[in-house]
Amino acid sequence: MMYFWGFALAFIITLIATPVARRLALKYGVVDNPGSRKLHLTPVPYLGGLAIFAGFLVTTMVFVPLSRQVISLVVACLVMVVIGAIDDAKDLRPLTKLAWQFLAAAIALVGGIGITVIANPLGGSIDLSLGRFAVNLFGFNFHIAPISNVISIFWMVGMANTVNFLDSLDGLAAGVSGIAGVILFLLSLSVNQPAVALLAIILAGSAFGFLPMNFNPAKIFMGDSGAYFLGLVLAMLSIYSGGKLATAVLVLGLPIFDAIWAVIRRLAQSRSPFSADKGHIYHLLIGAGFSQREVALALYVFALVCGLAAIFINSTGKLLAIAGLFVALSLLVGILTVVSVRRNAKGKKD
Q1: What is the pLDDT of residues 217-258, one digit of tens each?
Q2: How far apart are CA 73 and CA 75, in angstroms?
Q3: Which pLDDT score, from 0 to 100, does residue 241 have?
Q4: All structural domains of the chain with their residue ranges
């Protein structure tokens, strides 16, 4: 019953807070104006991430017992939300944003949220804490494991930016993040991790509470404040109390692949990996003739199917599924690119 009330409270708070965030954004002119690479035709306010974070924070404070890990999770998320909101309003430089993202990840790491082992495809697990040593700072003992720490930080920063790459289509980032939260909730229950399950279902409630005003046609965008927050929480929940990296990669396989593809594509064009373009998979689907709503709903189903598959297959099966998923998505990008080029060529002739 606690899980139901956690979801419900997070949903309701976010639902109520979203119009407030919208009015705040409009009052201070924090809006996303239409442009050549944008899918919307009129200015849409940002700062929806503040509403999502409000739902998550208040509900977490009500239902989740405080611990070192929970406190570090909340503080790390607060850093992400603040820097994201400032970026929505002021358009910060990519390196500035990246520095703050690394700080947020480091805060989570200091709180004890880090990857210590990963599954070995040949059986067993791989210990990432080799070379571990202790350091005393200001009377506190901290354990440093170089390999584990580096992988953990890059995982958290990478996931924050992955969800941000996903946030260019109405309702997509919120819907997929909510589905990922539900999948992590179910998986955490299956391995008897009630604290992680509670945080995951609260996250799902917050994401879904934002969706009514964010689904096409969107009345508000979550902005970087919401995307960074959702990505960081999903990253931390996937490693908090055990590690579910393969599950997270599978359920978020499409946005992770899309983020990797975006970086490769932009670097090949001698552009910054943080620059915007219209080469994302959802852009290609729209270019192939699908509507924004059709694309969003199709990708919701895709994420749900991948997530449910992750629950019922073992670690080795997940790795094989991830490999197959990336091959299939590579073929999909190739096909959609050809279809989009032909449609554009036909449109110019007509």
Answers
A1: 999 999 999 999 999 999 999 886 455 777 778 878 888 888
A2: 6
A3: 47
A4: 2-349
